Amino acid sequence: MPYSVAVAGASGYAGGEALRLLSAHPELEVRTATAHSNAGQRLIDVHPHLRSLAALDLVETSAATLAGHDVVVLALPHGASGALAAELPDDVLVLDLGADHRLTNEADWNRFYGSEWHGSWAYGLPELLHSGSGRQRDALAGARRIAVPGCNVTAVTLGLAPGIRAGVIEPGDLTAALAVGPSGAGRSLTTELLASELLGSAAPYAVGGVHRHIPEILQNLAVAGAESPTISFTPVLVPMSRGILATVTARLVPGTSAAAVRDAWVDAYATEHFVHVLPEGRFPRTADVLGANTAMMGVAVDADAGRAVVIVAIDNLVKGTAGAAIQSLNIALGLDETLGLPFDGLAP
Amino acid sequence: MPYSVAVAGASGYAGGEALRLLSAHPELEVRTATAHSNAGQRLIDVHPHLRSLAALDLVETSAATLAGHDVVVLALPHGASGALAAELPDDVLVLDLGADHRLTNEADWNRFYGSEWHGSWAYGLPELLHSGSGRQRDALAGARRIAVPGCNVTAVTLGLAPGIRAGVIEPGDLTAALAVGPSGAGRSLTTELLASELLGSAAPYAVGGVHRHIPEILQNLAVAGAESPTISFTPVLVPMSRGILATVTARLVPGTSAAAVRDAWVDAYATEHFVHVLPEGRFPRTADVLGANTAMMGVAVDADAGRAVVIVAIDNLVKGTAGAAIQSLNIALGLDETLGLPFDGLAP
Amino acid sequence: MPYSVAVAGASGYAGGEALRLLSAHPELEVRTATAHSNAGQRLIDVHPHLRSLAALDLVETSAATLAGHDVVVLALPHGASGALAAELPDDVLVLDLGADHRLTNEADWNRFYGSEWHGSWAYGLPELLHSGSGRQRDALAGARRIAVPGCNVTAVTLGLAPGIRAGVIEPGDLTAALAVGPSGAGRSLTTELLASELLGSAAPYAVGGVHRHIPEILQNLAVAGAESPTISFTPVLVPMSRGILATVTARLVPGTSAAAVRDAWVDAYATEHFVHVLPEGRFPRTADVLGANTAMMGVAVDADAGRAVVIVAIDNLVKGTAGAAIQSLNIALGLDETLGLPFDGLAP
Amino acid sequence: MPYSVAVAGASGYAGGEALRLLSAHPELEVRTATAHSNAGQRLIDVHPHLRSLAALDLVETSAATLAGHDVVVLALPHGASGALAAELPDDVLVLDLGADHRLTNEADWNRFYGSEWHGSWAYGLPELLHSGSGRQRDALAGARRIAVPGCNVTAVTLGLAPGIRAGVIEPGDLTAALAVGPSGAGRSLTTELLASELLGSAAPYAVGGVHRHIPEILQNLAVAGAESPTISFTPVLVPMSRGILATVTARLVPGTSAAAVRDAWVDAYATEHFVHVLPEGRFPRTADVLGANTAMMGVAVDADAGRAVVIVAIDNLVKGTAGAAIQSLNIALGLDETLGLPFDGLAP
Fold it and tell me: Which residues form a coiled coil (chains A, B, C, D) (predicted)?
């Protein structure tokens, strides 16, 4: 008998993508989809692409409507999931796609978010390398509260952790510049996200160290072994609905050979299903991972500049959000980690 | 009486944009447009948007067809302009939109281009700061051979030179990641430049220190006063036909205040017509400069990361190519530097 | 001494484009820009691309702030300009970019708009052919109240009127399908206009005869000589910020030769500056007219289907809105009709 | 034991999409992928998104390399599949994604294609209504030679056939205008398909009755019961990599009620898995069907214009090409028709 699932915040982009993937999962059954202003509508009127779930209606988000499911996925605005999650039974698997339970340091939460802090949950990035050995996957087995990482965080963390753990790049003075699609910002009505503003244009935001994903990246890199990491992080909105292409760079540890640098990444992900390191000289495009739970990357060594350059491509709504949730869910429930998750991108 | 102008390589994007701007210039008259495979066609069949020049036919590119003009603009593939330019009289103003005459160091040319080196010309970036004081503008007055900078080079150089000359950023370990439109790659038929490949995708290229624009950037920064500059430079194609959004970062010189950093940029460009530094906390989009000869930038200080972050937006075909040529032409001929050049972008 | 101009509703796309073009007009001086929710801000904070007008602040829209100018351009939501215009002196030239004064038939207004009707003004489409002979241009000389046409209306009207007046196509059973950029819908915050919704997608709207531009098209075709015209009209939003590509078709009048059909269009626009009929077998793209006041079109005869097919490209914000206003303004004030208006598109 | 499959022409877009879908099909195993100029490369170097098939190398296209498979999919340029198919055994299931075997009328082939005619195969559009009763599905059971329809043809045929068969629209004087992504034109290197040409622009092609898909549409409508159908057909390239949004219109048969018109479409597709008629007043976007084998449509009655308007959205590479092939394959092999085919689109 399949596990029953409810998705809260189903009318947004993250909630919609969770539903798309959940409905194709062989061991799960979506029973409930909740919303706030759209409650009462048919799900398919809000997400016309979700034909598989045409029978679902959106009900009001509350502890009552979410009760009685094996799995609850929270796709709510930041600050909204903490109180709601506290009302759900401990043995229900709850996955939070929002930021509320990601940060382990309350001071970071207060500085970058500022609403009430609700503590941290098991962090849903299975491939995250732990200092020395081990991976985050182990912390997810049997977990019942999982914080799904931020999409930009996933791209940057996966791109840097191998070099950090292997000691081939320096943890201070990292840089990351990301070309990102607007769907990561959600279905929110702001002028900056209008099609007329973004079509034919590239637009930076949160420039100069103020983006909320920065403390989460540094937290992950510390897990991978970085002492006092620092990162210059700049996202740029570009005219594609989905996708993140992260260009991350790090100073090479002096004396490291180019082969040793590449080996750090190749070795780190050799056994991973969803992280794919390309052959030398090749780099990914976001189209290569569109709709897939794949993080694809290429690693270069720029000896003149003294930096390693890693290009990481993910689909922000899949490996960056809803796919990561299902991957973690599979682990938490003891299922095959790859169940219900696409490997292949949709290109062109 | 207007100066007569010929454009060689008129069927490409750079040539087309040069023609668009030249035809609107009050002191110039386009008499001749040349091409190779398209010779014999009407210009408007190759560039249907150039209604102002509907009377022109494309003639074969040669020293003979280019002879007899006051100004010759060369918009030819790299390696093609050196020999042709040598056949033109010394008193003709020749502007090369290609790379052939940009690099002052033959070893750099050989490493990054590899064809025959033809020496360097006066460098067409009027706003380029010279170490100590002075600007490149002075070197252009009366010049008759001008090498127009590469488009990425213009964005990165303008973004870094003020901090270099003011001594508020360190010249080593610079980084630049650029979101760029494909028109900068020209009208060349390669699979990577097909619409199906780029629509909905972000695609890096020339990753890891191999892009031909790197030595030109370093050459400029040395002019601005940098000793042994190094830069990690990564361009990413994004789905917009035109535009460059450069994210450039540099380590802050220890002890420098945030105000001193911003002042370096504000002061450097306070008197410039075509470089516009936005107020603190604001950053440009490429749409803001579409079709304009404007470089717009925002400067941030990321104290946590210890880096200055400068975002620069230009239109690669205008301030990055054809507009820069006309601005330099105006200076060389003693005209008002702003003549015939748009300030305002075409947004949305 | 230049004419002084005020633009009401300056923070929207139509208002912004009017300002861009007005600021480049040699006989006009923009003195005032008004807004509602953005009043009090600097214009350049709302339209960062308008560097030429950096000195302007947005003031509140009212009869008082608009008083004392020679020309007032109203770029207000439908229904808002009628009352305001009534407060402006009769000798001020008022151009309404909205729909309020376009329709001559009150019943049409009531059916498609429904708010209070304010009567009709001189219709600002100079090239509109009048039945028999003559053009709308004559009605604009000396006018002081001008209703600027809808953008889709301009494309469809220009594409059909020549065949109507020449009697080579039938006025009943016309069809029009338009690929349109979202900027025509204005800077309004609706989910359908979000970048995430439109990027990578084509989305129809107002399907089945309910679009407000339909009665205006039929009104124009009646002016051109059509008896009881009918049209099936379908706009489709596509992922480009600007531009309209209209595919209009009409049944051929039996016995008409293909040459006679093409001649109708070629002859109608032979003397027009801003309407350009391409040679046989060629058709325009919207990029060809981006930023220009040009309507470019191609005419084909499909003998098998028994229909003429006309493809019309315009920039919805220029020839479709702000450029049309300035063209009409030039005529109304007795200036050269082409003053301050670009012919050439911005491609690629 | 799964059926073994070979794909010829694997390096193009149609071939790549066939491989993406085939690799996810539970009853099929892709054994061979062939190419011409790319033979010898790894498949994943040509299609980096196809991680599931990373083990495959591209071999030369020939009867020898295609031999020994249960199923052969031909994704070759028009004119190339006829001779090759003749060399394959009769009991192998051959699906031709190209045009070579679609047309039943040799004169049509000669007029629109002109190369050698190879006769017609079972036509792979299962939902095609036959005059009176029955559907094309019946002709596909057990078939071993299947001609997969053209992508534009599928959209237009599905949009018109219900009204034709039900007698509520007239078969003469049909119109179709399509917004199409460039991937339908294949991975061919032509200037018109460059990203710089298409980004930010809408571009018509094959205007005026010359498109090769026209006779195929008329052939289908005749199957559905149309006597002497005629259609004005205009495709417009728009800046999205995939997708077709077809606006098709037809004159209403006098005296038909709006309800009767809508019922014709609702009834025709009530039992179809992959054709979805939206509720009254709703119309599809291409994003709703991205990556899915779904044709989604909305039907409107424009009483003023006397026309039915049907909007059809498909993914040109899925329901328009590779998905249609697999759907037909499922029928031909006696499998569940929906096996391996996605219902849900990838939005946003």
Answer: none
Contact residues, chain C, for D202 at CB < 8 Å: 179, 238, 240, 243, 245, 285-286, 313
Confidence of residue A1 (pLDDT cuts 50, 70, 90): confident
Alpha-carbon distances of B184 from B17, B193, B314, rounded to whole Å: 11, 11, 12
The pair of three-digit structure tokens given for residue B191, joined into one six-digit string: 């699979």
Contacts of A183 in chain C (CB under 8 A): 196
The one-letter amino acid at D341: L
pLDDT in tens, B168-182: 999 999 999 999 999
Residue with tokens 């605005």: A77
Q: What is the pLDDT of residues C202-221, one digit of tens each?
A: 999 999 999 999 999 999 99
Q: Specify the pLDDT at position B250.
A: 98
Q: Mind listing the domains of chain D with CATH numbers?
A: 3-120 (3.40.50.720), 152-316 (3.30.360.10)
Residue type, B119: G
Clarify whether D115 is annotated catalytic.
no
Name the 3-class secondary structure at C118: coil
Question: What is the structure's pLDDT at D18?
Answer: 98
pLDDT of B291 reads 98
Across the interface, whether the CB atoms of A201 and B243 are under 8 A apart is answered: yes
What's the per-residue H, E or C state across chain D? CCEEEEEECCCCHHHHHHHHHHHCCCCEEEEEEEECCCCCCEHHHHCCCCHHHCCCEEEECCHHHHCCCCEEEECCCCCCHHHHHHCCCCCCEEEECCCCCCCCCHHHHHHHCCCCCCCCCEECCCCCECCCCCECHHHHCCCCEEECCCHHHHHHHHHHHHHHHHCCECCCCEEEEEEECHHHHCCCCCHHHEHHHHCCCCEECCCCCCCCHHHHHHHHHHHCCCCCCCEEEEEEECCCCCCEEEEEEEEECCCCCHHHHHHHHHHHHCCCCCEEECCCCCCCCHHHHCCCCCEEEEEEEECCCCEEEEEEEECCCHHHHHHHHHHHHHHHCCCCCCCCCCCCCCCC
Beta strands in chain B (DSSP E): 3-8, 28-35, 58-60, 71-74, 93-96, 122-123, 145-147, 174-180, 203-204, 231-237, 244-251, 275-277, 295-302, 307-314
Q: Are C244 and C152 in contact (CB under 8 A)?
A: yes
Q: Tell me: pLDDT of C1 over 90.
A: no
DSSP state of C28: E
- H or E stretch covering A276: strand A275-277
Q: Is the ipTM of this complex over 0.85?
A: yes
Which chains neighbour C (Cβ–Cβ under 8 Å, 3 or more pairs)?
A, B, D
Per the CB < 8 Å rule, is C207 touching D236?
Answer: no
pLDDT digits (tens, 9 = 90+) for D269-317: 999 999 999 999 999 999 999 999 999 999 999 999 999 999 999 999 9
Q: Measured between CA atoms, how close is A187 to chain C, in angstroms?
A: 7
pLDDT at D1: 82
B320-333 exposure pattern, b = at least 16 Cβ within 10 A, e = fewer: bbbbbbbbbbbbbb
DSSP output for B142-179: T-SEEEPPPHHHHHHHHHHHHHHHHT-B-SSSEEEEEE
Residue with more model confidence, D79 or A13? A13
- Chain C hits for D317, CB-CB cut-off 8 Å, are none
Average pLDDT over residues A27-50: 97
Q: Which residues of C touch A (CB under 8 A)?
A: 13, 181-183, 185, 187, 189-191, 193-201, 239-241
* pLDDT for residue C84 is more than 90: yes
Q: Angle at Cα C27 formed by Cα C21 and Cα C28, nearest 5°?
A: 55
User: Residue B212: pLDDT band by 50, 70, 90 thresholds?
Assistant: very high
Structure tokens at B118: 């033809």
Verdict on whether the full-model pTM lies above 0.95: yes
